[in-house]
Structure formats: C-alpha cells, structure tokens
Specification:
The complex is a heterodimer. Chain A contains 18 helices and 20 strands. Chain A is α/β, with parallel strands linked by helices. Chain A has a 7-stranded mixed sheet with strand order 3-2-1-4-20-19-18, with helices on both faces. Chain A starts with 10 loop residues before the first strand and ends with a helix. By secondary structure, chain B is of the alpha+beta class. Chain B contains 6 helices and 5 strands, in the order αβαββαααββα. In chain B, the strands form 2 sheets. In chain B, strands 1-2-3 form a 3-stranded mixed sheet. In chain B, α2 links the parallel β1 and β2. In chain B, α5 crosses α6. In chain B, about 35% of the residues are buried. The chains are: A alpha/beta, B alpha+beta.
C-alpha cells in the first residue's frame, strides 16, 4: 500500500477544535509542499477561533486580529470547517478512524480550576472563565446570571484572565460600547453598581504573571482609580535578588509601586491590586450569598529549584465582598475515549503523541496540540511552536507508516457522515456569511461586530432552521 | 506563567529509572537505549536515591578500568536538587544555569513524577519568547485598526 500524501491518495487529517493551536497545526501541515494533505476541522460551536473569539477580552480587539492569519489558512482549497459538530456527540473516535489517517485533539482548556476552600459554591461566587465566556457571547454561557448590582467584587488570581475580568468590571459603558462585547453583557455591565474591585494575588509583585502593558492599562481607565498597598509592593530580599537581571520585571514592580502612591482622583470606581494574600474561606449571609471572604497573609519562600512560592502566615483579615470571580487557572475537559491526566487537566501525551496509559506507548494516529496538550500557559503565539512539534511527530510517523488505515479516506464520504449526523453543521462559507452579518450589524453602531450568541439565531441569520 | 508541569505534561508518564545495586554496564545500556543523558536512581520503595549522568560515568571511568562492574550507588550523585510541578520555568532555568546541573527530577509528595533536562527547559523558554515575538509581530503587521 502506498503511503498517503499524494494527489490520488491525500493524507487526511481531522482536527478537533478551531482555536490558535488548531490553526497553527494547519499552517505547518500546509507548509509541507511535498505532501498533499487535506484537513477537516471540527468545532462544537458554529463559529471558529476558540478563545480568540470567546476568551480574549472585547476591549483587546487588536489581539483578535490574529484571526486574519487563520482566515488565510482556511481559504486553502484542501481545508474544510465543520462547525456545530461535537466530538463524542455527533462524531466519535471510531467514525474518525474510518475517515482519517491522523487525528489531532486541540480542544483547549475550557473549564476552571477550583480553589478548594469552604464557601466556594455560595451564590455570587463564579468561575472567572464563565464570566469571560458570558461577556464574549459564548452560546453555552449567554444565559449565566451575574448580579452586578452589588458594590464590591473580588477576583481571585492575578493572571491574564483575572486582570481581564477586573478591567472589564471597571470599564464604563462608553468604553465598552465600542467593543464586540455581547449585547446582553453590555447592557448588564452598563447597569453595574460595582464600586470596588479587588484583584488578589497569592504571591508578590515580582511573581505576578500579567504583562507590563496590561498593568499599565489598568492605570489609565476612564473612570476607575487603581491602588496598591505600599507594604505589599515593597520587595522582600528574595524577590529583589530574583529580578536583579530582569529589567522587564523591575519595570513592572516600579509601575505597581507607583500605584501605591496614587491618591483618589474622584473616579467612581476603585481597583485595588493586592499581593501576598489567599482566600481561605468565602463567608455567606442568611440567604446563602457571599458577603465576604477571609484572607490569609502569605510570605514567600524559595523552593529547592529556585521558585519563590507562597506559604500562609497566621495573620488573617476579612474582606467584605458580594461577588467573587475565581481565576486560578483554566483546565482541560476530558474527551470521550481519549486518555486524560486528571490532575493536570491535559491529554496524556509525549511531544503531542497521545499516550496509552496501559502500554505507555503512543496511540497510532492520535495527537494533541495547544492547551489540552501542555496546560494553559503562554500567549496565543506560544501555540505555534507547540503545534509545530506535534505536526513534526505526525510527519515522522507518516514516514514510518505508523498511521491509521481508514476505510473511506476521502473528503466526500466524510462530508456525508457529518451531514447525516449533524445536518445543522456550519461550513467555513457559512461562517464567512455569519461574520459578514456580524460586522455589518456592528458598523451601524461603531462597533467591530455585534455577535450572534444563540445557535438558533446563527442558523436563522443564514436562512436555515 | 509557565510551570515545570507544563513541560512534564508533554513528556509522557514513563520515567526511565535505575536501581542503586544495578551495574554501570546496565546504566550505560539504558542511557543508550533511550538516548538520554541521565537516569534517576530509585530504591526498592520507589524513592529517589540519587541521579547518575554521563559525566558521573566518565569520571568513574577516569578513575579505574573495571568501571562497568561497579554498582550505580558507588558513582551516582546523592545530593540531588529536585523540583515540584508548580515550580516556575524561569526560576528553574536560572537555578540550573547558576548551579550548573543539567537534569532535574520532579518529585511530589515523595513520588518521582519525571525528569526534565536543561534542553527541555531552554526549549520551553525559547518557545515562550518565540510565541511572544510572533504574537507581537502579528499585531503590528496585521493589526491596523479596521
């Protein structure tokens, strides 16, 4: 049997997920000019681009322009998009093995990690990821309720998501009105009575994950003052030594120390960035709603390998808050029939080859890329080297002949399967029409786009049911 | 912030180890078979006993001719710096560079989870920089407001 990758016998690849890692895998596959490769990309949502559409904050439109690169890739004649098709529901691993030589799981990290403290599930305590998906118009989360009529909110965590959430809570309706935030979220945030937002970091300013532009940005909000506490942004000896050679982090600390000197300027909201504190309990009122949290002060210590980690002291304080957003990290969701590392929330893999937990050897034809492969870390572009590594394994295995042997390795039979299982699938052409309508709806309002947030509405917009 | 567990996540679950009483001949064979530069030495209970690297073996060979029959325990490095999955990539890179060691066993609750090499750590750091550069370039080149 001849090796696939030729005009008459193209290499057929299925990719589950359509975020950055999925598209960078496509990019590297299509770079192989000596091979004829066909890629079918599946997403459970009708719309592509994963967290670029559903995660990146609406007030960071520039970051979303990366989709232009993905759009070019999607225009390749051997690329197909099957949106609104869910792996494990409409199509299964056994189906894919019938139609493809190689399968890539690039489903990202869709859920949140738990804090593991009492009161975590009180009313008013939410995973930050749900809030993010909500304001970004994700169909699964559009009906979530966030009571923004309270005055004090805490965001637990100090990564990109945490700072996005804090910033979105501090934005004015005017600032939000020029973004592609979901309509209902714009309305809810416009009526928000939030006055104080606390961003709570476990470690110190020298260990904060956010970037310097992100931290500068919150210092320039139209109607929110930002503060830090002098005692919390003063560096301890260990932190000082750790950033001696690191100008970027020194600058970050300088900016944060500057916020400690700021005086209220009469803006209507206040954002307090706190360091070296961890919530140990959420406190509820009679109605079972969050009314505060108990915080413990932390100190830093150095691990054997050099990390400055936090440990609790016996100093506690109480912070009265009515809303809590938990943002201590995204985590992957297992896919039916695919080996999963429960603790780390990733698919078991070696350089992107899916590993069988029994034999500890690779599962033929199955691969993974992006956050579901390595965990939620890095910026959008970090997925590029990650996906390249995975695709290189795929190419090596192709040469070795270690691929699936599908009975029906042709585009038409795969399309027929999708059509049978999910007649309401979205092609890339469908998405382009939807995109055009969204952008057009936005134009009238001076917004980048007005998103459809219900699958029914997306179908209706295309004249389908 | 990238953690050591993000590197470990893509390295499978199989850690290549050797027992202290095994011979250097077996150690060399194992290193060659798996094309790696160091082995974690674990005792019968699976606890970390030390680490043995190519360098340890070379040093032993310089001392005596019948090196291959020696047990691993005679040659291995006993005081091993270890990391936990939550260690920061950047701190680990700094520590490995400053203290000049190339293999770092990852241990959690006394259980050996894996080993990362300086190569793994440098690659992860490079990927991160490359990703940041790429993201910035995309925004500069393609990011003119519509």
């Amino acid at each position: 049997m001849t090796q696939p990758g030729t005009e008459t016998n193209p290499l057929r690849v299925a990719i589950i997920g359509s975020g950055p890692a999925a598209f960078y895998a496509v990019e590297h596959l299509f770079k192989q000019t000596d091979l004829v490769i066909e890629v079918d990309m599946f997403d459970r949502l009708p719309t592509p681009f994963g967290l670029v559409r559903g995660g990146v904050a609406p007030d960071h439109q520039k970051i979303k322009t990366v989709t232009r690169v993905y759009h070019q890739l999607a225009s390749h004649p051997r690329f197909r998009f099957y949106g609104n098709v869910e792996f494990g529901k409409h199509i299964h691993l056994a189906d894919l093995k019938e139609h493809y030589h190689q399968i890539v799981y690039a489903t990202g990290a869709q859920t949140d990690r738990h804090l593991g403290i009492p009161g975590e599930n009180l009313k008013g305590s939410h995973p930050a990821t749900e809030f993010v998906a909500w304001y970004n118009g994700h169909p699964d989360f559009r009906d979530c309720q966030f009571d923004l009529l309270h005055e004090r909110a805490a965001v637990v965590g100090i990564g990109n998501v945490a700072i996005d959430v804090a910033r979105m809570l501090c934005r004015t309706p005017e600032e939000l009105a020029t973004t592609d935030i979901a309509d209902y979220a714009l309305e809810a945030l416009s009526r928000s009575r939030i006055k104080e937002v606390y961003l709570l970091g476990r470690r110190g300013p020298a260990q904060a994950a956010f970037t310097n532009p992100e931290i500068k940005e919150v210092g320039e909000l139209a109607d929110a003052d930002v503060f830090t506490r002098p005692d919390e942004v003063e560096l301890d000896e260990l932190s000082r030594a750790s950033i001696e050679q690191d100008k970027v982090t020194q600058k970050k600390v300088e900016i944060l120390q500057g916020y400690a000197l700021r005086k209220p300027t009469g803006k209507s909201r206040k954002l307090y960035i706190r360091f070296l504190v961890s919530p140990v309990e959420l406190i509820g009122n009679e109605a079972g709603h969050v009314s505060g949290m108990s915080l413990v002060r932390n100190v830093l210590y150095q691990t054997e390998a050099g990390t400055l980690a936090s440990k609790p002291t016996d100093h506690f304080e109480e912070l009265p808050v009515d809303l809590v957003f938990r943002s201590v990290g995204y985590r992957g969701v297992p896919l039916p029939g695919v080996p999963f590392h429960e603790r780390w929330g990733v698919i078991l893999n070696q350089k992107g080859r899916v590993i069988d937990p029994e034999t500890q050897g690779p599962r033929v034809g199955e691969y993974t890329a992006g956050w579901i492969k390595r965990g939620p870390t890095g910026v959008i572009g970090t997925n590029k080297p990650d996906s390249v590594e995975t695709v290189n394994c795929m190419l090596e295995d192709l040469v070795q002949g270690s691929i699936l042997r599908p009975a029906q390795p042709d585009a038409a039979s795969a399309e027929q399967l999708v059509r049978e299982r999910q007649p309401r699938y979205f092609s890339y052409a469908d998405w382009l029409r939807l995109d055009e309508i969204e952008v057009l709806r936005g134009k009238a309002l001076g917004r980048p786009r007005v998103k459809f947030t219900r699958i029914e509405d997306m179908l209706a917009a295309l004249g389908r049911s | 912030m990238t953690k050591i567990k993000n590197i470990l996540a893509t390295k499978g679950t199989n850690v290549i180890t050797i027992r202290p009483e095994q011979s250097l001949k077996e150690a060399v064979a194992t290193l060659t078979k798996h094309n790696i530069g160091a082995l974690v030495v674990v005792d019968a209970a699976g606890r970390l006993a030390g680490i043995i690297s190519e360098r340890d073996i070379i040093r032993a060979a310089a001392r005596r001719d019948d090196v291959f029959t020696q047990p691993v325990s005679e040659v291995m490095t006993r005081s091993v710096i270890t990391a936990v999955p939550n260690d920061d990539l950047r701190s680990v890179l700094q520590t490995m560079t400053n203290k000049r060691f190339r293999h770092l066993p990852i241990v959690e609750h006394d259980k050996l989870l894996g080993i990362v090499s300086i190569g793994d750590v440098v690659k992860a750091q490079l990927d991160q920089y490359q990703g940041e550069i790429d993201t910035l370039q995309t925004q500069i080149i393609k990011g003119e407001p519509q």
